[in-house]
Amino acid sequence: MTAAELGIGARVTGVTQRDVGEELWERRRLVKTYSLRGTVHLHPAAELPLWTAARQALPDWRERRGHESYGLESEQAEAVLEAIREALDGGRLTREELADEVTACVGSWAGERLASTWADLIGLGFDAGLLCFGPSQGSKVTFVRTDRWLDEWKEMDPGDALVEVFRRYVAAYGPITHQDFARWFALRQLKPNQARGLVASLSGELEEVEVEGQWGWIATSDADMPSEQPDASLRLLPQYDCYLIGCRFGRDHIIPERARSRVFAYKNGRFEGAVGLPVLLIDGVVAGMWERRKHGKRIEVRVEPFIELTTLHHRLLDAEAARIGAFLDTEVELSLEPLG
After folding, report:
1. DSSP for 156-191?
2. What pLDDT sits at residue 34?
3. 190 neighbors 266 (Cβ within 8 angstroms)
């Protein structure tokens, strides 16, 4: 959760961790839910119907075979969804409480799967847009019914929603290929023909470009963007940041060999690469990694650069550490040293 909060802090000037919490649990303009690739995301609450509908455009859901991916018969899936709907009608429940309520209705076979800390069976309810996360109860997560938690819910056509999500992906990450989008949106669930069809559906809005021998699509409105070099940038990004997850075109330049070899030798970087680690990003390229450690009321930010930092880099890094301190409302101590 802190990684998601820090990701917002890196993009919204002046926002704090407290602000993000208030948007989630008090004003409810953000919502926490299982979403793309079956992983936890934060979405603007007003856009949750868009993302839910887009995921329902995937073949399994569209062909009414979504229950099969959970190893259920159709009748079992409907019974689980109805039991979740009834259980959450009165308010929020912890994972264990929800599992007990649903098990009492559908049978003991569902209990262990609903209580799992992985999405597993409860993911069926997220796929349907039936529930989302509520405020934690101590160290335990809770779940609430989406139609009770959010002010309004507008049903959307799944096909139209998927096209809109594809349009946004091109705008944010272009140049892209249809395979890039398929892997980002749903890993292996989005079939190549369907992904290619999305390109065709926006034929009047896209332009094909060649970058160092590789062809990809960009929004036509971006084709005439000025080519001058932008100002130098430096960011300390949290693990699982959307920049690294979404940027797939020209990935060898974003995560160069020097960075890749060091990342793979450190903690879960061996399994997840740079995506699974907090990274130092310089001019859009992974140029180091970092970690934060809490010491009483202050936080130590330790950075391991993979390149020699210039005077400008040091100045930008000091500013970035100060920004993180302001976001977390705590004192930050910055150090440069190897990690692990």
Report:
1. --HHHHHHHHHHHHHHHH-SB-HHHHHHHHHTTSS-
2. 95
3. no
Interatomic CA distance for residues 238 and 260, integer angstroms:
17
Comparing CA positions, the residue from 121, 126, 128 lying closest to residue 106 is: 121
- Could you report the per-residue pLDDT of 240-279, keeping only the tens digit for each? 999 999 999 999 999 999 999 999 999 989 999 999 999 9
Distances (CA, A) of 56 to 65, 129, 158: 11, 10, 6
* 229 backbone φψ class: left, alpha, beta (φ>0; ψ -120 to 50): beta
DSSP reduced 3-state for 319:
helix
CATH number for domain 158-222, candidates 3.90.1150.10, 2.40.160.10, 3.10.350.10, 1.10.10.10: 1.10.10.10
**Bridge partner list, 292:** 301
| Spatial separation of the C-alpha atoms in residues 73 and 143, rounded to whole Å | 24
Structure tokens at 52: 């839910």
Tokens of 311: 């005077």
The torsion angles phi and psi of 98, rounded to 5 degrees, stand at -65, -40
Q: Are 102 and 80 in contact (CB under 8 A)?
A: yes
Could you state, in order of their start, the residue ranges of all structural domains in the chain? 2-149, 158-222, 234-336
CA distances from 44 to 9, 145, 185, 200 (A): 15, 16, 17, 28
Closest CA to 231 of 284, 279, 278: 284
